[in-house]
Design goal:
With about 240 residues, the chain is α/β, with parallel strands linked by helices. The chain has one domain: 3-Layer(aba) Sandwich (Undecaprenyl pyrophosphate synthetase). About 40% of the residues lie in helices and about 15% in strands. It has seven helices and six strands, in the order E-H-H-E-H-E-H-E-H-H-E-E-H. It has helices spanning about 15-25, 30-50, 70-90, 105-120, 135-150, 165, 215-225, and strands at about 10-15, 55-60, 95-100, 125-135, 180-185, 200-205. Strand 3, helix 4 and strand 4 form a beta-alpha-beta unit. Helix 1 (about 15-25) packs across helix 2, helix 2 runs parallel beside helix 3 and helix 3 (about 70-90) packs parallel to helix 4 (about 105-120). The relative contact order is 0.18. The structure holds 3-methylbut-3-enyl trihydrogen diphosphate (2 copies) and magnesium ion. One 3-methylbut-3-enyl trihydrogen diphosphate (IPE) binds near residues 13, 15, 57 and 60.
Length: about 240
Amino acid sequence: MSKESLPKHVAIIMDGNGRWAEKHAFPRVRGHRKGAESVRTIVTLCRKLGIGYLTLYAFSEENWKRPPHEVTALMKLLGSFLKRELKEMKESGIRLNAIGRTEKLPAATRKILLDTIRETSHGSKMVLTLALSYGGRQEILDAVRALARKVQTGAMDPEDISEDQFSGSLYTAGMPDPDLLIRTSGEYRISNFLLWQISYSEIYVTPTLWPDFGEAELLEALSEYRKRDRRFGAVGTT
Ligand code: IPE
Ligand code: IPE
Ligand code: MG
């Protein structure tokens, strides 16, 4: 696949772990564990293909509403996943990044997350961003507050709030907007993910449940992306 036809930034709403578990008559947590294997496969393939940014929706601000035992299991799984993958991430030049209100994560998980971010900070091949305790509306509000404070202190004029300024105040500051947004498990909704950043992303929804989403499924999404005519509001090329 040529580099030009590849998205620079792929974002994924990894959905369907619970339904996968239900289908196999397993507890939900086992679906999350299998989902972590898909994360590994997809991260590795994106890195190999030369995709510069991969952003994964791992835990939403609204997911705190789930039963405590599921939340605890997800947090533990995140910690053990990061510990297990650290060596590989460093070797393959992956830089870990997190977006969201990560201060809400349990202290032990947060420590592993921050350690992994620090230890991978020299990675130059791919930025892997995990959206954790993330909500698009909350992100926009945090940006609005930061900009309002600057205006209040006189450091900025309201007229200077441009799209670039605003983008630079989001958790994703410095990252390109996603070119391709994938959602697994067949749900046609955004669920509060990257609301500002996806204004012109190509959306790909697949019925495949996240634990079943592997290399072939990602390649299919990329091939579908290649066929899209991105017009950005202008006149098309086809
Ligand atoms: C996605 O799978 C993982 C998280 C949201 C953490 P779900 O747990 O939402 O799976 P379904 O939607 O219940 O099948
Ligand atoms: C979106 O999935 C959040 C993540 C994938 C982390 P959800 O399962 O939480 O979303 P809804 O409830 O179907 O909208
Ligand atoms: Mg779900």
